[in-house]
Amino acid sequence: MKRTLIFLLTCLALSGFAIRGAAQKIDLKVLYVGYDPERPQPEKLVYYSTWEPAVTAGYKTRMADFKSYLNGRFTGVKVMDVRDYKPAESETADVTIFDAGPVNLPADFDRPAILLHAMAPNIGIPIKLKFDWYCQCLEDEALNVNTRHQIFNKPIKVIPTMIEKPTPSSFFNGHQAANTPKTMKMWRVVKESASLPGKYLIGMVSHGEGFADSPDAEVISGGDCLKNAEAVAIGRHGNYLMWGFSASPQYMTDEGKNVFINAICYIKKYDHKPVLVRKLQTATRSEIDELIYRIDEDLYKKALISRKEGNQRLLKMQEELRAKKAAGEDIGKSNEMFLLMPVSNEVQSFDDYLKQFAGVQLFAKYGTDVGKYHQYFRDNYEYFFPENEMALKLDTDARTLGVSNRNPSMLEKCVVMLENHDREDLAERLLTRYTNEKFTTAAEWRHWLDHNSTKLFFSESGGFKFYADTSGMKANPVAGLSQKNDSQKSFSDPVSVSWRIEKGKAPDTINLVVSAKILSGWHIYAYVPPESPFIQTNLNLKIKNKPVKISWQSTPGVALAGTSQTFVYEQTAEFSAKLSKNQIKGVRNATLGFYYQVCNDNKCLQPTEKKILIAF
Fold first, then answer.
1. Distance from chain centroid for Cα 37
2. Residues 6 or more apart whose Cβ sits within 8 Å of residue 136
3. pLDDT tens-digit profile of 415-441?
4. What are 559's strand-pairing partners?
5. pLDDT per residue over 286-335, tens digit each?
6. C-alpha Rg value of the chain to the nearest Å
7. What is the pTM of this model?
8. Within a 10 A sphere around the Cβ of 346, how many other Cβ atoms?
9. Residue 301, helix vs strand vs coil
10. Phi and psi for 62 in degrees, rounded to 5?
11. By three-state DSSP, how is residue 472 classified?
């Protein structure tokens, strides 16, 4: 009995210690950079929701919410408005959390940082982190979660509640579909917001393809989104950690809050351990897998059916909008524009479909023989390299050598060729193309290769290059930002915009016509339903800095495959608006804002506004 009593008392003492330990603050200084609601709200916020009041509410509440929660967990917490932030502020903090922008960090910034939601690409793109803008469409749950990772285990042990759910439908739109299960285990990070009348703030995912192909980067989880299972919701690159979910602590689950605390502690380990490899390439070898998938006649036929059904839905939606308008309802500017969009029954021929994906040169060689395209891509799979940031082409030099361009034995073979004076031009081209070195003698190449042979890794996202792993050493933080890569051209915007003035039907009017040319395989959005995170194309004309109220009529859009109410422009789109001569009397110039988001079947680019000067 006495022994039992002593045992129970010991257990109580230990449990009491555990409770006190759990409540004890972590000895870290955390800096939160957000919006101070006491200051005027900027015109554009980094937050995004299909329910606008959520954005305003976020501006008013997030700073106080983070401050309160972080103060309860860490010994030192400071919050500041992003408009006052300078990189030097992070020198006195152990970890900086970025929740608002714009923020411009120097390329050599090496202090631990957490990048929330869209702040990941907003900070990451200019300094070429792997946090690119894949899609601002992350919902509330994580999937493909690495629960063995430290952020689930230290300093707080978290056993995430995983629930089997149907796989997001978008995960089946692409070559990954064949290996995608019908259900996936998901972990809720953001609370169910049944109390909110609209959608809470939407999170961000980055491209997963090539993300973890360098030792300075790791994928921790994906997320429920409108892209694919490879999309990154939580990941690390160097001294930066992307937390793609949008919730402030008030809207996080208890498990989510604890993992977030662990993430702050985890990234502290990477203080002064900067990025090794910069993201130079969006198109990786998975693009070849996607081409093999897309070049398929059955898939083409399904697209035709989808277009026909889409036109029927478009007419029905327009009919419903007309009825609402006739009843006196304000249907909004975007719906007014959609209402004027005509329907086209034109369809793409199979020949043009093949040219779109395979290119004119391959079509001239293989015609409509789908099997030959597949054989070509499979036979040459190991020899593709960048044509530009978004596309690959065949490296005939690598094919001539007969060794995969991602196999280190290619480097060894090339150095031996230099040493033996065997096809030296070919060897030099390959060595300089697939490394960042510019040696001029065989001896220099041999010394470099022998010294680094056990450290080499190949990064497709880093420009299809071999790098030496310098983990644990002081890396060059700006490597890759200014390098010249003979296999890459600077990638041009997939959308170009021009304008012209035409005579109006009435003598006192003119027509302003805006033309958008869209790179083959890409699209911009003609109409998106209210719950969609994608950005509908919008035109705003200003005369003397004042918006001009005009109606824009566009050329036909087409249904986006796999969606029920989303319509897009492909190849070209024209927008025309009638102006009275009185509106432009005495005016020499006006400013047109052309706001759009461009995507293809695999990726989206960051929403962009082109400012165009219109001369009358």
1. 28
2. 48, 117, 118, 202, 203, 204, 533
3. 999 999 999 999 999 999 999 999 999
4. 567
5. 999 999 999 999 999 998 998 889 999 999 999 999 999 999 999 888 88
6. 27
7. 0.88
8. 7
9. helix
10. -65, -40
11. coil
